[in-house]
Each structure stands twice: as C-alpha cells, then as structure tokens.
Amino acid sequence: MRSPARCYDALRAYLETIPLIDCHDHSSQTGPQPSDPIRAVIDWYMQSDLHSASSDADIQIIFDSARPLEERWPVLERAWQRTRFTGYAQVVRRAMRRFYGEEELTLAALRRISEKMIDFSDERNYLSVLDQAGILVRLEDIGAAPDAARGKLKQPPRSRLIIGLPPYHAITSYEEVQSNVAPLGLTVTSLDEYLEACRTLFTRCKEAGAVAFKDQSAYTRPLDYTNPTRSAAEEAFNWIMEDPRRRLSYPEGNRPLGDFLFHQFMRMARDLDLPVQIHTGHMAGIRNEITKTNAVHLTPLIELHRQTRFDLFHANWPYSGELLFLAKNYPNVAIDFCWANMVDPIYCQQMFAQAISSVPHAKIHGYGSDLPGDALICAWAHADLARDNIAIALANLVEMEYLNLDEAREIARGWLFENANQFFGLQLQPEGTTL
After folding, report:
1. Which UniProt keywords apply (predicted)?
2. Is there a single domain that holds both residue 310 and residue 381?
C-alpha cells in the first residue's frame, strides 16, 4: 500500500529508520521449529478470517496436520480465495514473500515452504526477525507474574514484563485465591490479607522489571465496572473462603468482589506508577459479542482514577469516535494501535489522520504486534504494515498542507518510539536508537 502524496516515499523511508517499541505481544519463548507449512505462514488471526469465510468443519480439516497437505489444500484454497484481501491476509502475504520468497499461497508454495521452515528455537533466527522488523523492545503479556514474584523470571529476548490482572480479580473460588498468592508462600484467610498479598506480588513484579498492568476481561464480561462497597466484596470473598467447595459464578456472581478488586488494583497501579493496558474493541476468534468491549464503558473508571494512566488497546475497533473522545477528554488516557493495524488497515489510516486533528499527538502508541512466539514472521509483516498505515496517514496530511514534512517525521517518531518510551518509563536513550 502507498499514498499518492508526493512526500510519501521520503516519509516511508524515514519510518524505516525509527526503532519500534512493540507495545503488546505474547511471545512466551523462542518457539520450536514448525512442523506444518500451513501453520508456519498462517497465524492465529488469519485462521479467524479463514474460519469466517468457511465453516467449523472446514477449519478443522485445514489445520489438522495429521492429514496430508494435498488433502487439506483444496479446503484451504477455497477459504483463502474468499478472504485473501483482508488485513490479516496482507500480513500472511508479506511474511511469505519476505521469509520464503513466495508471492502467492499455493500448494506448490506450501511444499517449498515445508522444506525450509524457520527454526525459532534458535535464538539467532529469533533475533534476526526482530532486527529486520526494527523492534527494539517488546512489552510481553506471557503470564509471568508468578515467576517474577518468585524471583525466577525468564523472558524471551528484548522483553519487558507486563502484569496480567484478570487472574487476580476474576476469582471465583478458594483454590484460585490461594493459587494467586502461592508464589509468596502464603495462605490468606481474609480480603485484607489478599489485597496485601497482591500489592506485595505486584511490587515484586515491578522490582523484576514490569512496566505495566494489562487486563483483557472484555473477552468474558462487559467493561462497565461498578464501584461496589467493601462490605459487598467482603461478603462474597468470605463466602468462598468459608467452604473450599463453593464457587462464585462468573462474571455476574463475581462482580461485587471482582469490581471492588479491580478498583483496588487501579489504586495500586497509581501507587506503583505503572500504566494499565486494557483490551477494548475487537476480540480474537469469531462469534464474539462486541458491544461489551467498547471503551466508552470505561468512562466512570477513568473519571474516578485520575492519577492512574490508561493505555486503551486495539484502537477500540470499530468504535473510533468513542476512543478519540476519551483520549481528548481525559489526560490519563492514551490510544494504543496494537493489533489494530492488521485488523483493519484502512480504519487505522483514517483514525491516525483523525487523531492528529482531534487528540494530542503525544498520546498515540502506533504499533504492537500482539502475536504469539510461533508467529514471529508475522510480527515483521505487521510492523511493515503499521509503517505503511502511518506513512499513508501522515503523507496525506502533508499533501493537504495540514502538516509539513518535518512535523510528520516528528509525529511518526513519537508514535513508533518516543511516546511509548516515555509512557512506560522504558528509559531507552534516543541516541543510538536509530536503525
């Protein structure tokens, strides 16, 4: 993709020199060498589009690696032909071209790929892709908070720890409570003890290098957090503690306790000076209910916790206007385009442009791969696509004389590096970070 604007080529070339801060990822390890050529090039998100374009039965066939490739290919081909122009497909095609020299997804191409699948258990291969993508640092949500609390944190290269919050507030049983505090060698018996243990655990995570909290509860419940009383939360907590066989229903039975804990954790985030990343908008997979994930539901939470900084994910796709309003209206809200650049590239190009005229540009985080470790080549392709989207949006604004080229370069560097570096307290030095 490109813009017809006269400055596009110069601006796009400049974006290649900016090191990326990957604001959200899930690469828990340098992954093993793939054994299936289909899975080697088709990441989990593209599987969703293929599923949307076919059927439950077809998707089972396509990704059943026990079946011969020749048997699966006709089913994959039908689905691919119906969805090959989406943003996810853009990522797959770019990754195939870059790393396997294949222009099109065909049976012959898959056979050739099967002979040279990249082994990412070799850290050299892993780092090579990060270098090619220009990814300097990755903020990783890999469920590593317990290891960090135990002092046994091990992360993939160039990673910074993110503390996942849902396990700590979506509690429904005695076992879950005790499992959460087990890394501290504790058994808790009251709500006060549990809160103290969580604060200790989160503090240890920060000491181990954590740079943010992250919550993706929108997959399982609405984002309209209520503000229940301590007594209501304590009643629910005591009920499960009194009998280990009891279990609160989720999400409704957990709400007095879970919502109370969530507000307490927002205060801990404030005290630890760690921002909170929240999943908003589109969800992975298919057959999801989208209205519950609209960032506008977070308004009372954002209004109350004015000293807690919020990084709202996925450009709130498809609700751009609501997120632009929140970022414009609340000093403690930033917009994060992680994942969104491949969910809907055109949406992002338009929202990047609109954000310039409506939101302080220092509140935009332009890239996050949001991929597991076995999709590393797609992280490169996603970065390539994100640079396209940003260059197109900014070049068009230069062409219409809303910006000049130097201003566009300043904004681009902020969106890809400077803003996140400051927001997450990464302390990366500007000198020596140009690729």
Report:
1. Hydrolase
2. yes
Q: Which of 114, 136, 157 is the last residue of a domain?
A: 114
Residue 434 has pLDDT above 50, yes or no: no
Q: What is the mean pLDDT of residues 252-276?
A: 98
Among the ranges given (8-22, 80-94, 137-151, 366-380), the one the predictor scored with the smallest mean pLDDT? 366-380
| Cα distance between residue 121 and residue 109, in whole Å | 23
Q: Is the pLDDT of residue 6 over 60?
A: yes
d(C-alpha 206, C-alpha 148), whole Å: 9
Residue 169 lies in a domain: yes
Q: Which of 114, 139, 168 is the last residue of a domain?
A: 114
Confidence band, pLDDT 50/70/90 cuts, at residue 137 = very high
Is residue 161 domain-shared with residue 104, that is, in the same domain? no
137 and 94 co-located in one domain: no
Are 316 and 397 members of one domain?
Answer: yes
Helix/strand/coil for 391: helix
pLDDT at residue 112 tops 90:
yes
Task: Please tell me whether the overall predicted TM-score, pTM, comes out greater than 0.85 for this model.
Answer: yes
User: 77 with 34: CB under 8 angstroms?
Assistant: no
Note whether 177 and 103 are same-domain residues: no
Do 380 and 261 share a structural domain? Answer: yes
Q: How far apart are CA 280 and CA 297, in angstroms?
A: 10
Weakest-pLDDT range from 127-136, 196-205, 370-379: 370-379
Tokens representing 251 are 């999400």
Evaluate whether 244 touches 175 at the Cβ level (below 8 Å).
Answer: yes
SS3 of residue 40 by DSSP: helix
Query: In the chain, how many H helices and how many E strands?
Result: 21, 8
Q: Could you tell me if 66 and 158 lie in one domain?
A: no
Q: Are 139 and 23 in contact (CB under 8 A)?
A: yes
Domain that holds residue 88: 37-114
